[in-house]
Design goal:
About 0% of the residues lie in helices and about 55% in strands. The strands form two sheets. Strands 2, 4, 5, 6, 9, 10 and 11 form a seven-stranded mixed beta sheet that branches. A hairpin with a 2-residue loop joins β9 and β10. It is globular, with a radius of gyration of 13 Å.
Length: about 110
């Protein structure tokens, strides 16, 4: 069973940046499938990105230019760097590791 703590969310102005972190407790982090999702109120969860054990990232359409997923296996941590944030990026962001969902971190973007 994994335990995860997400952080890095907050309020920014449009055009700003945030870096989300997901620290995972438990064995097997480096081998686990890892994802970032987000959810806007009233809508379903939306896939953003995934990263392979070897560090190869993949993104849903429209995210690759502004978002970057990385991992630090030594720290059992998954990251999502978000740049050039837009008001439409406001959502709760979730990390998913080995099919276990974090509790989410909220991002607000002001115009």
């Amino acid at each position: 069973q994994l335990d995860m703590v997400e952080s890095g969310g907050g309020s920014v102005q449009a055009g700003g940046s945030l870096k989300l972190s997901c620290v995972v407790s438990g064995a097997g982090f480096s081998r686990c499938p890892k994802f970032w999702y987000r959810q806007v109120p009233g809508r379903g969860r939306e896939f953003i990105s995934t990263i392979s054990s070897a560090g190869t990232p993949s993104y849903a359409g429209g995210y690759e230019d502004r978002f970057t997923i990385t991992q630090d296996n030594a720290k059992n941590t998954l990251y999502l760097q978000m740049d050039s944030l837009e008001t439409t990026d406001a959502a709760v962001y979730y990390c998913v590791v080995c099919n276990t969902w974090g509790h989410g971190t909220k991002v607000s973007v002001a115009s």
